[in-house]
Write a structure and sequence with these properties.
Layout (H helix, E strand, L loop, with lengths): L4 H28 L8 E4 L8 H11 L9 H9 L4 E9 L3 E8 L2 E5 L3 E4 L4 E2 L9 E3 L5 H15 L5 E7 L5 E7 L2 E8 L3 H11 L4 H6 L6 E3 L7 E3 L13
Parallel strand pairs: 1-3, 4-7, 7-8, 10-11
Antiparallel strand pairs: 2-3, 4-5, 5-6, 8-9, 9-10, 11-12
Length: about 250
């Protein structure tokens, strides 16, 4: 081979092309990291309802690095998504040195167990919120199901002037509904079997039972719907009158 001028020339050309490719790659890499391509303008394009603008700016300054060409967008999105109330982030690079950030925020729907919130999509997140929200207690991973059931059952109870204030789901799948009306709080023990049927029966006979008691000034604070053909009601302070003794 060393005596073959044609092969030597071909090898030399190949090596030259490889060297040129490596050199070109190095030059491109060097150019993309030049300060001339660094972002000069970072703009949040969506109005922030609950996310702290100062917190977001702090993360942008400390976590987002790189130029127009080298910024790791996945890493940037992950850093911004850790800011409280941020549900998701979309990043767009605008030539030559502008970065646009679109923030999707959580909408608070309920409180979750002891230290978190549930948004309108049934997603659990951690943030501080002082407003009134229904309270959910349930096993991990069940927030989306509880959000859907809350909406369904709140609509079912609304014609009775009962507003749901909370929802509990036990580890065994038993449901408990917390509601309130003008007279006070009411707890419904629904159980885990035929929940829709039990609630439908309760709504159907509400006017003839609970409604009559409420009209008479008797408040019921707990109802157990786990009966086949009826329910049991508890009235605080109620005492059954003793029967008259026979003479």
């Amino acid at each position: 081979m060393w005596d073959d001028a044609r092969q030597l020339n071909a090898m030399a050309v190949t090596l030259a092309l490889i060297a040129a490719a490596f050199l070109g790659w190095a030059v491109v890499g060097w150019m993309t990291r030049l300060p001339a391509f660094a972002f000069r303008e970072v703009v949040v394009t969506t109005p922030l309802a609950r996310t702290s603008g100062a917190h977001l700016e702090s993360v942008i300054r400390s976590e987002l690095s790189g130029t127009f060409f080298t910024m790791n967008l996945d890493r940037a999105r992950a850093a911004l998504a850790r800011v409280p109330w941020v549900r998701g982030v979309a990043l767009r690079r605008q030539w030559p040195r502008r970065l646009e950030i679109e923030v999707d925020e959580h909408a608070p729907f309920a409180r979750w167990n002891d230290n978190a919130l549930v948004d309108a999509n049934g997603e659990v997140f951690v943030a501080s919120y002082a407003g009134d929200l229904p309270q959910f207690h349930g096993p991990d991973g069940q927030a989306a199901l509880m959000t859907a059931r809350y909406r369904e059952w709140a609509a079912l109870l609304a014609p009775l002037a009962l507003q749901m204030t909370g929802l509990d789901l036990s580890a065994r799948g038993g449901w408990q509904i917390h509601a309130a009306d003008d007279a006070g709080a009411l707890t419904l023990d629904v159980g885990r079997d035929d929940v829709a049927g039990r609630l439908a029966r309760f709504v159907a006979i509400y006017a003839r039972t609970m409604g009559v008691l409420a009209h008479a000034g008797t408040h019921v604070d707990r109802v157990d719907l786990r009966y086949r053909n009826g329910f049991a009601a508890r009235m605080p302070g109620f005492r059954e009158k003793p029967g008259r003794k026979a003479s």
